[in-house]
Design a protein that fits this description.
heterodimer, A: alpha+beta, Rieske Iron-sulfur Protein, Naphthalene 1,2-dioxygenase Alpha Subunit, Chain A, domain 1, 21 strands, B: mainly beta, four-stranded antiparallel β-sheet, three-stranded antiparallel β-sheet, 10 strands, iron (chain B), 2Fe-2S (chain B), Rieske_2Fe-2S (chain B), Ferredoxin (chain B)
């Protein structure tokens, strides 16, 4: 880039490729608004939750798509609906509970009342009030409740996971994920019923894309997360692969852990500290599961809204919920499978201590994202480098590449038309 | 046990094909008159907090003013969403100009 330190109005891409990323893509509120429209509300399926979170008719969960509040609710026929949390009458975001069970959805302001599919059922005093033998007020005679339901989103379910879209014309979910990534999606969600184990939630003061990039960046785990290296969960020479869908928007980092220990090479990353021991070694009481088919970790980014995690026995979804260009909520849903033994459930829960806002590993990511945002905000005319492994976009069989980040921005530029 | 018939209203106080609300021993009762015949149900809707006597009587059904749930005035049956619970009905008879209601 030139020495020009004036702040551009729009992000400036100074290369034909995406190996240098303008800081402005993280700092510009207008860009953020366009992203919400183009990446979250149109053309994409966004994660909303797990079927196991709402097992019974009437169960609901309030969540978001981008910055829009939505409700995932199971109706009396057992179907899952996703409706926008905005009353059709005066526009109030009426549902305030995070989870619950309800017979109907009611806005408290004027008690407009919707069924569990979002259809308008009742309007108080729709036909007016009777006074002195006369009927006064009420809605116009031509008011049609059928035209004033809650916004009903399209819903896709696969393997117990629920996605939704505001876009009527969004492509089928399987095409959206693409065959390459569907393979890894189905590996984790292979039809077994899921069992909800719990949540972590944190607010990270950084741009939401940084979290997608974090899980498309296999360069950092062995360098930032010294805990991983110390205890042998991640080493740069782990057998590993980086894969993408054909649009390069989704990706998977697939790795198979070495045996660790003093006889293994840690190859230039960090010394393996033999003298360091866990107070409670059960954190790494890993049990190989048949469904892994080899890989000990598959970290999958589904653009734009979710990360699907398998890190040894810990499995979770991580939902990205932007609020402004410089902040997002990160909601972890830890789960297991219905056929897990109590010991396996306990093991999954223990290993979940690696993750979440205070996790042995993930606490690091929250901080570096915050500090990256600080850097961008002070130097918005500058750009970052993503040239590791070359400037091309290609799948690799090693971890020393930023190809997935370049791929995501290639897709981003196409979608954003910049 | 003797039957507990209570006078609740004058017949002419109930307009034809309409509904009024009365209080009987602390119970809120809705009284309906259809083709000269009197019917009685609970007056408080089983769904929201509303009096059915503020609602609209049509084709033997009372529509709640709040959320348009409808009950059959003869059986008390909940006829549509958002209602999930029926309401109670009462036996009436007319003695001269007086409407009598059977309370148990």
């Amino acid at each position: 880039m030139s020495n020009d330190t004036r702040i551009p109005l729009q992000p400036v891409w100074d290369q034909p490729d995406t190996s240098r990323i303008p800081f402005k893509v993280y700092t510009d509120e207008q860009t953020h608004q366009q992203e919400l429209e183009k990446l979250f509300y149109r053309n994409h399926w966004c994660y909303v939750g797990l079927e196991a979170e709402i097992p019974e008719p009437g169960d609901f969960k309030r969540t978001v798509i981008g910055e829009r509040s939505v409700i995932m609710v199971r109706d009396n026929e057992g179907m899952i609906n996703v409706v926008e949390n905005v009353c059709a009458h005066r526009g109030m975001r009426f549902c305030r509970k995070k989870h619950g069970n309800a017979k109907e959805l009611v806005c408290p302001y004027h008690q407009w009342n919707y069924d569990l599919k979002g259809n308008l059922q009742g309007v108080p005093f729709r036909r007016g009030v009777k006074q002195d033998g006369e009927v006064k007020g009420g809605m116009p005679k031509d008011f049609k409740p059928a035209e004033h339901g809650l916004t009903q989103l399209r819903v896709a379910q696969r393997g117990g996971v629920v996605f939704a879209s505001f876009d009527e014309n969004v492509e089928p979910f399987e095409e959206f994920i693409g065959p390459q990534m569907l393979h890894y999606f189905d590996r984790l969600f292979n039809g077994r019923k899921l069992k909800l184990l719990g949540y972590n939630k944190q607010r990270i003061p950084g741009n939401w894309k940084l979290m997608q990039e974090n899980i498309k960046d296999p360069y950092h785990p062995g360098l930032l997360h010294t805990w991983f290296v110390t205890f042998g969960l991640w080493r740069a020479d782990n057998r590993s692969e980086l894969k993408m869908d054909e649009h390069h928007r989704h990706a998977a980092m697939i790795s198979t852990r070495g045996q660790g220990g003093k006889n293994a090479q840690t190859t230039n990353v960090s010394s393996f500290k033999e003298e360091m021991k866990l107070n409670d070694p059960r954190f790494l009481d890993v049990e190989v599961e048949p469904w892994w088919n080899g890989p000990t970790a598959v970290m999958m980014t589904v653009f734009p809204s979710v990360i699907l995690q398998q890190q040894v026995n810990s499995v979770s979804t991580r939902h990205i919920q932007p609020n402004g260009h410089d902040s997002f909520d990160f909601v972890w849903t830890h789960f297991g499978f219905e056929d897990d033994t109590p010991e396996m459930t306990e093991r999954r829960l223990r290993q979940a201590n690696l993750f979440g806002p205070a996790g042995f590993v993930s606490a690091d990511d929250g901080e570096v994202i915050e500090f990256s945002q600080e850097g961008f905000e002070q130097k918005p005319f500058h750009r970052s480098l993503a040239e590791l492994g070359g400037r091309e976009i290609e799948e690799t069989d090693h971890m020393v590449s930023e190809t997935l980040i370049r791929g995501m921005y290639e897709y981003w530029r196409k979608q954003m038309e910049v | 046990m003797s039957e507990n018939w209570i006078p609740v209203s004058e017949l002419e106080a109930i307009p034809d094909d309409d509904v009024i609300g009365v209080a009987v021993n602390g119970h809120q009762i809705a009284l309906y008159k259809v083709d000269g015949e009197v019917f009685a149900t609970d007056n408080v809707c089983s769904h929201g907090q509303a009096l059915l006597s503020d609602g609209f009587l049509e084709d033997g059904e009372i529509e709640c003013p709040l959320h348009q749930g409808r009950f059959c005035i003869k059986s008390g049956k909940a006829m549509c969403d958002p209602l999930t619970e029926d309401i109670r009905t009462y036996t009436t008879r007319v003695e001269g100009e007086e409407v009598m209601l059977l309370l148990d």
